[in-house]
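Hey, quick one: can you model this chain's 3D structure?
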Amino acid sequence: MTLLASMASGEEITVCDDEVRSRYSHLEKMTDLVAVWEVALSDGVHKIEFEHGTTSGKRVVYVDGKEEIRREWMFKLVGKETFTVGATKTKAAINIDAVSGFAYEYTLEINGKSLKQYIENRLKTTNTWILNLGGTDYRIVLEKDTMDVWCNGQKMETAGEFVEDGTETHFTIADHSCYIKAVSSGKRKEGIIHTLIVDNREIPEAVE
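Sure thing. Here's the predicted structure for all 208 residues.
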């Protein structure tokens, strides 16, 4: 994902619209907001915002509304800012590159990959389900390489069990019995199929 900012009309930035301003009060002070990304990690979906003052060289990085980096005066307008995101301390970086004249390009990297590459890789290595139990929304994520299960930002206590046609990973959410069943698809390209069962009901997988 690439976002462009231009100095064609002074310091005016058009990336921040009224809807974003109303949802994030700290944006009222952000006169140099140039890029906003949403990144889905195992512990939740995180919002990353970046301010870049193309006169002063100021750089400010916000993660979920919290200021992570602030540099007021930077002689060099291009470069890279590195930080971490979420409970898993996932490594992230924002690259600042000059395009032409006073226009700049901002790209986000997650774990050393471009955002597009990271999303493509994540689709292969995780499964995500979103469901409502007793009026509360839950986002459940399975990390297939470790079989770790996350629910609403918390790593769950799980118990693995071998069954006749595969394995089951059991856990509990708000007194509801849950397990993720892993069975072979019988096809090399598809590999293992993971299914979430809550109170004996199969939950459809979500696409983020």
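One thing worth noting: The CA atoms of residues 22 and 64 lie 15 Å apart.
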